[in-house]
Write a structure and sequence with these properties.
The chain is α+β, with helices and mostly antiparallel strands. The chain is 28% helix and 23% strand. The protein has a 19-stranded mixed beta sheet that branches. The chain has a two-stranded antiparallel sheet with strand order 1-2.
């Protein structure tokens, strides 16, 4: 299915569905405030998939920890379930801020959250269960809503738009209600029923931890005008039950799924005038080739990434990395390309790096994808990932305006996306020049970086 020339992918677990309401939530404070509101209004169920939950994380407005919030919902009689990632023992750094099911975690659940049901799920070795999902009242047509994105329960994510400071994250969720929600529901059930640790004594907890779930049987009523498709990365062999989603076909999930990769490439290949990306990484040859193809057609491209990249020793040592860096460096030869980071201010007024943790792409002011999927080989080939891709020109345009207002401190509502992307590049370059002279008096947060040296030479 295609609208505005941007195709949605076929032959995945989930079909494109019309009639959805899409609402983006930019940055953690408004996103978690809205999630708390939705959970407070829930009538029947709250189901959550979690990657990281830092011990010190607290919800906005004195709502307590994530588990406090969910226990209150469970104490009202709601069916509350969580799927937590259990990192392998050879990933000790990842266990630090994951609620991975240690003896202390099990005691905490029994004492403080006894009515919350939990299953733990490992990824394929070397990969991560990276989905971030909040699914409220999935079987209640009038109140069902879902949140899909990249925001962890991390204290550094509790940021209001435009108020970034030292050590903070910029991130996003998208709220999806309507027919497409059934596929978020199906994905959760598939994961819950086949969670890797479900048969181990320490692999589940709570009153329904031992009980499997029924797959969804009906499609929710229309709630809006957006065409949306839920897309995934799933490693081969991770799950085996290809039970079809309502209105969809049976899919061989045992063979794995890469609809996220196919969608990113297909969308960039079809872009006509503007591509805007926020992501932690740009480390996959197929993605870089699709970007270069768009640039060669005259498409304006802005990519926003962390000023300080998070590059593990494994990434740096990969034998294919020199060729990848050379291909990525070629993007700098196109005048219609801009690589940017964002930097806020500390209490003294000094500019400080803001970590870009969002995973989103906007194309032609008409199409977007938001989710958990990074543009590196882990997210595109092996992690458990979930994105929502959607056609909804009004929503995508409003999202572009909101993001550019934050990053440029400028209202771009009078501009089309091509002109707005050119303005972004102009402002980011001007801010780079100011920074190089020691002037912290920038316009907004954006600062241009050198893609040819990104990851090897300090950019800030």
């Amino acid at each position: 299915m295609a609208r505005c020339g941007i195709p949605l992918v076929s032959s995945g677990s989930y079909p494109a569905r019309a009639g959805n309401r899409i609402r983006p939530w930019i940055d953690g404070e408004p996103a978690f405030r809205r999630i708390c509101q939705a959970i407070g209004d829930a009538q029947a169920s709250v189901w959550v998939a979690v990657t990281f939950m830092w011990p010190e994380f607290r919800m906005p407005d004195d709502q307590g920890s994530g588990l406090d919030l969910l226990q209150r919902a469970a104490s009202r009689g709601l069916d509350v379930r969580l799927i937590f990632w259990r990192p392998d023992t050879d990933l000790p750094g990842h266990r630090r801020n994951a609620f991975w099911g240690s003896a202390a975690h099990l005691r905490q659940l029994a004492t403080d959250s006894p009515d919350v049901s939990v299953r733990w799920d490992r990824a394929h070795p070397g990969f991560c269960q990276h989905q971030k999902i909040w699914l409220i009242d999935a079987d209640e047509d009038a109140t069902a809503t879902s949140f899909v994105g990249g925001i962890n329960m991390n204290p550094h994510s509790l940021v209001s738009p435009g108020h970034h400071g030292a050590g903070q994250n910029h991130d996003a969720y998208v709220e999806l209600a309507g027919p497409g929600l059934v596929d978020v529901h199906h994905n959760f059930v598939q994961r819950w029923n086949e969670a890797s640790e479900r048969d181990d004594p320490d692999g589940m907890a709570g009153p329904n931890g031992a009980l499997d779930m029924a797959f969804p049987a009906r499609i929710p009523s229309p709630r809006g005008d957006a065409v949306a498709e839920v897309q995934r990365t799933t490693h081969a062999g991770r799950y085996g039950d290809g039970h079809p989603t309502p209105g969809g076909a049976s899919f061989d999930i045992a063979a794995g799924e890469q609809t996220n990769l196919r969608q990113y490439c297909a969308a960039m290949d079809a872009a006509r005038h503007g591509i805007y990306i926020e992501n932690q990484y740009l480390d996959v040859p197929d993605i870089i080739a699709a970007l270069e193809g768009a640039l060669s057609r005259g498409v304006e491209v802005v990519v926003v990434m962390p000023l300080v990249p998070d590059l593990s020793a494994t990434i740096r040592a990969a034998p294919e990395r020199p060729a990848l860096l050379a291909a990525r460096a070629r993007l700098a030869s196109y005048p219609n390309f801009c690589l940017s980071g964002i930097a806020g201010r500390d209490m003294s007024g000094r500019r400080v790096s803001v970590h870009v943790h969002a995973k989103l792409m906007l194309i032609d002011d008409a199409w977007a994808t938001v989710g958990s999927c990074n543009l590196h080989r882990y997210s595109l080939f092996g992690n458990g990932e979930l994105n929502v891709a959607f056609h909804d020109p009004s929503t995508v345009r409003d999202m572009r305006i909101e993001l550019f207002q934050e990053h440029l401190d400028t209202d771009t509502s009078a501009l089309d996306d091509k002109a707005a992307l050119r303005l972004f590049r102009h402002v980011a370059l001007a801010n780079r020049n100011r920074h190089q002279t020691g002037n912290a008096d920038w316009q907004g947060l954006a600062i241009a970086m050198n893609v040819a040296t990104y990851g090897d030479v300090a950019q800030f």
